[in-house]
Structures are given as C-alpha cells and as structure tokens.
Amino acid sequence: MSEAHPNRARAIGVLETLRKKEVPIRFGTAKLNTIHSLDTFPLILKEVIDHEASNIRFRDVVTFKEEENTKPVQQTLFLTSFKEFQSDVGYAFSRDKSLYAVWDLQLNPNGDLAHKISIPDEYKRGSIFKLLENGKPDIRATITPAGTISEPHIDQSGSGTLLIELQGIKMFVIWPPSKKNLANFEPFDGSQKTGDLEALLEVLEKAECLILEQGECHLLGPGYIHGVLSPMNSAVAGVRVVRESLRTGAREVMEWESAFIRKLKYGTTEEQQIAKGIEDQQQEDRALWLQLHEIVVSGIPINETNK
Ligand SMILES: O=C(O)CCC(=O)C(=O)O
C-alpha cells in the first residue's frame, strides 16, 4: 500500500470544516473555447518549464534533485512524474509534499499552450488584460500535484485574476475583501505558512468554495483572499485583468494595501522589500486602469484592442 499523502489529514479536516460551516459551493462559469485541444498537456508543461528554466524560483523548487542530477534530468523527472502521479503515489517520489508544485510560471507567449487558450468572449468583452511587450497576454500557470494545499493569499489588489483551469480540478476557498476580512487577513498577508488555511477559516467571514474543473473559468475580483486544494494533479492559469465592474473593489483594496505598505516601510529590510514588490504590482495595475480609461475616451470598442 502506498504511503498516505502528508496533506491527506489536513485536506479532510478542511473539508469537514467547510461542511460544518455550511460554506456554499460554486462552480466555474464558462468553458474555455479550446478545451478539447489541451489533451497534449504534458508536452505543454515542458514548454512552460523550458521557458522558465533559467528562473531562480524554478531552480528553487527542484533543488532536491540538484545534488544528484543535472538540470535537464531534473526537468524530465518533473514532467514524467507529473504525468504519472496518481493521488497518494506521488508522495513516494518526493521528499516533501510541495516539491513539485510550481507557482505562477509565465507561459511562453509564443508557445502552444498560450495559443490554445482563447479566452471566452464574455470575459474578453470590456476587459483589459495584462499584456507582455509583444502584445500577447501575460498568462501565468500554477502546476500542483495531487494533495497540494496553497495557503491563503491575495494575488493583487488593483486588478482581478481570470482563472482558467487547464488540467484536473482545483478547489478554491475564497473570501471577499470586506473591511473586516482585510483587517483579519493582514497578519497573514505574505505569510503562507502551513495551517494558515485552517486559521483563516475561523476568522474570516463569507467563505465560498469554488470548484474549477478543466476548461472552466472564474473571474476572481481584486483583493479576493484565496487558498487552494488540489485533489488531483492540476494546473490553473491566471491572467490579470481590469474591467469596469472591478473598479470600486480595486479602489477599496488598493487603499487598504497602501496603508499596509506604509507600515511595512518602517519594518525590517525584508518587509521593505515586500513593500517594494507590492508597490510595483500596484503600479502595473494603475497602468491597466489608465489603458482602460484611454480606450474608453477614444471610443474604440474594448474587445477590439485586447484579443
Ligand atoms: O493552484 C494553486 O494551488 C494556487 C493558485 C493560486 O492561488 C493563484 O493562481 O493565485
């Protein structure tokens, strides 16, 4: 019998809490137009990883093999194992539960996967997506083997994230950025420690459980706090987006975050660096809002500009 996944007890505990608290369940709202063509996913993962091979963060997640193997071998192992993992079996292969999870990888804008993701019209209309210099959407993917638990965090305060499930199923526990939630979340912001999910389930209000299956999308509003459970090998893409319906939320959460940044600036060197990172994100979000404004003023239909 295979060893139980180290997160098994945690995941069961979280599900039990969600049930006891009668947390409502919701599902993805639209199907990715091109979902049938995502069957070549293992190949596409290779593309993602090749693109990121020089990225320090990627090297960090595979350090367990660095002692023994060269980098190309590590990458092959990662890909092979992702393809073949089945639930608990995966754990036998890794030393630590999260070694194979890769967060927030930029997709190769000229690669197969980026081409295959055609965002459904209902999300395109009226939206400005964050683009790369070459004018293609900046799509990030998070790849997680079965049993991964991503602790609660906020993606960014000034824009939403269009989530697109690329493979498997993910269960997002999401909380709206109400004043009370943001105040209670503040001590956890940037922490992402094991156990934060359980702790925040006790202190935050109005949790919802969002289940995304392959090909489904959901627009996560600015500042939405979310933690994620992957019951199977899964991957989700995220694209930063602004649109009129997100404006009020973005403004409120950015105000909260700006006050938070001011406090961090008086903190340790690490906190000051975090503050700088958040400020850069805010700057990028402001640029998106400016773009939306300019387009509205120019009278060009927005979906003509952001394919
Ligand atoms: O898939 C995960 O485990 C985390 C994904 C996530 O939270 C995100 O993309 O912001």
Radius of gyration: 19 Å
Spatial gap, N to C terminus = 49 Å
| Residue windows where pLDDT falls under 50 for at least 5 positions | 36-99
Proportion of helical residues:
40-55%
- DSSP strand content: 15-25%
Mean pLDDT: 77
Could you tell me the CATH topology label. Answer: Jelly Rolls
CATH architecture: Sandwich
Question: How many structural units, i.e. domains?
Answer: 1
Alpha-beta classification: alpha+beta
| CATH uppermost class | Mainly Beta
Q: Can you offer a commentary on this structure?
A:
This protein has 307 residues and is α+β, with helices and mostly antiparallel strands. Helices cover 41% and strands 21% of the residues. It has a single domain (8-243), classed as Jelly Rolls. It contains 12 helices and 12 strands. It is globular, with a radius of gyration of 19 Å. Bound molecules: 2-oxoglutaric acid.
